[in-house]
Target: histidine kinase
Amino acid sequence: MNPYRYNKQLWKFLLLLFAVVIGGASLVYTNYLVKSLSKSERTKAEVWAMSTRSIVTMPDVDDQFISFIYAVRDSLTLPAIITDQKENIIFWRDLDSTKTNIRIEDTVQADLAYDPAYFEKQLNGMKRMHSPIVIDLDTGEKWYVYYHDSDALRQLRVYPYVQISLIAVFLIIAYTVFNSIKRSEQNLVWVGMAKEAAHQLGTPISSLMGWLELIRIKYKAEDDSVLNEMERDVQRLEIVADRFSKIGSTPSLTNHNVYRVINDYITYFRVRTSDKITFVIEGDRHVEAMLNIQLFDWIIENLLKNAVNAIGTEGKIIVTISENIAKEEIFIDISDNGKGIARTNFENVFQPGFTTRKRGWGLGLSLTKRMVSYHKGQIFVKESEIGRGTTFRIILKSNLRYEPTQV
Model:
């Protein structure tokens, strides 16, 4: 199990659960409020309908009572329309005051426009929203009261979705900030550990160099091949220590021939690997790129070690160098015929802590990707098949410039 990935997934799940709980609670409570307010508005509309019926059917009652009924009717603040059985509009309330269903020639209010389409649209909308309230007149005729929800109720219906959207934005921002802080803390820890490792390696490496010189002098073995290889290994340790000391700082890049740099490292690496594994380097020998030799060797080292581990006992590793002249890019493909990588893990292999081996911290490819980014390049799994092998591709910017041919 990858603890880094597990903790990351756990935090994602907890944040999502938090959002779902808040969103669900908001929807439930808001739905309760909407139903209560909708019921209240329905009651208001029924009271308005009853007061309108009273005005129409009781014209001879006391003036004070009529005034009271008018006051009750006029207290309604809902947009409403009354129609007869033929859907002719008889009365309306709280609609656009600049429009009317009374023709200009039939009224003294010449400043009002006649817009039947507006009233038809409003009436159709009210029909879709609520069933009508029926007014039974003494004449046997029926009137129908249609009404819209109030602005407050419409806004309340939308509110939970706005709230959920804001919560989602907040969670995205919080998750991004949390990831950034966590990544910064991890970087500081790795930088501190790397620099401390480099410091601790310094003293024994210097001692080993001194002991080698003493052995050469004591046994008069200036050109001994074994001591020469031991010295190369100690020098390699110096390079490794120097690598660790430079982690966290911006590396300096200089122009180098890519083929020569990779070939030099393979020459060193080959003699320290099983002779049953064949190394082949092919392709363009002339391309150049801006490199930091120590870090770039580390990139190649990690990829070659992974390839060796994937192969096991016997196989072949091919390094192919090519150039995309149009994009001024260099492609470095490192292929092996090892056990391969599942397609679902093409991205996961670069995550810190991911490993398919029983031993190991799963940091090699994560560090490799970071070092490639220092070179302003990219690295990815170009292709892989279980049981057939894997090809990693590195893309670097070419330092060679080609002028277009003059016709």
